[in-house]
Amino acid sequence: MDTGLKGRTAVVPGASSGLGLAVARSLAAEGANVVLGGRRGELVREEAAKLPSAVGVEVDITDPAAADALVGAAIERFGPVDVLVLNGGGPPPGTAVDFTPEQLTDAVNLLVAPHQRLVRAVLPGMRERGFGRIVAIGSSGVQSPIERLVASNAGRAALAGYLKTLASEVAADGVTVNMVLPGRIATDRVGVLDRANAERTGKTEEEVREAAMAAIPAKRYGTPEEFAAVVTFLASTAASYVTGEQVRCDGGLVRTH
């Protein structure tokens, strides 16, 4: 399948490791020019140097200036942004009972506002050119809230609502807006959560992982590469009639329709 990504320019924040890095590598493998963003500047520059056509930019996406920095770097090096991947870190675990208004504000500032700023930075150009792909890396908690992750559940659901609304407003302009929902993907972030669950329950990390895998129909964690392949498809020209969707990549974990 021809993805139509050769020569396109993609921006991927949170690309120093995990899902963001896997997506950046996948897009680069399809011939895209990729701008990798991340707080660990040396690391994103090292990873970018390994790709055929890429640049690493040190940014913290919670900084209001980050969107212009990333998009500006893309335009300066490669040209207008065709593909925007929305990605970043997640908030710490916590329960709804203990969730404070301040923590809700923090969740929005981490999971919604930075992504909206990125969208606003690239959307006018995408609409003018008649082509754009916006793909957000979400969480299965958007559709089935995850225990003890109330900040993530709330923030990512708010982002999902914004993107779903946006998708219908820009579809006629050739811009698609989708979200990919990972389940248990073998990343450092999931490892941190497994360790936190182990400490909370008194179980070993291996016991926690085994219990988690037992609840997944596929009976294993997914790989970052498997997840990145889904994002890459949605960024492709082949997915031009797919928009406003939440696509799960979770091995069957979420049992809703």
Structure description:
With 257 residues, the chain is of the alpha/beta class. The chain has 9 helices and 7 strands, in the order E-H-E-H-E-H-E-H-H-E-H-E-H-H-H-E. The chain has helices at 18-29, 41-49, 66-77, 101-111, 113-129, 150-170, 188-201, 205-214, 224-235, and strands at 9-12, 33-38, 54-58, 83-86, 132-137, 175-182, 246-249. A 7-stranded parallel β-sheet has the order 3-2-1-4-5-6-7, with helices on both faces. Helix 6 (150-170) links the parallel strand 5 (132-137) and strand 6 (175-182). Helix 1 crosses helix 9 (224-235), helix 3 packs parallel to helix 5 (113-129) and helix 4 (101-111) crosses helix 6.
Name the features.
alpha/beta, 2 domains, Rossmann fold
Would you tell me the overall average pLDDT?
A: 96
CATH architecture of the largest domain, please?
Answer: 3-Layer(aba) Sandwich
User: Structural class of the helix and strand makeup?
Assistant: alpha/beta
Instruction: Let me know the largest β-sheet.
Output: 7 strands, parallel
At CATH level 3, the topology of the largest domain is Rossmann fold
Structurally, how many domains make up the residues? 2
Q: Using the coordinates above, name the CATH class of the largest domain.
A: Alpha Beta
User: How far do the termini sit from each other?
Assistant: 28 Å
Reading the helices and strands in chain order gives EHEHEHEHHEHEHHHE
Counting H and I runs of at least 4 residues, what is the number of helices? 9
* Low-confidence segments: none
Rg is 18 Å
Helix content: 40-55%
Oligomer: single chain
As laid out across the biggest beta sheet, the strand order is 3-2-1-4-5-6-7
* Strand-residue proportion: 5-15%
Relevant CATH superfamily of the largest domain: NAD(P)-binding Rossmann-like Domain
Q: What is the 3D shape?
A: globular
Number of strands: 7
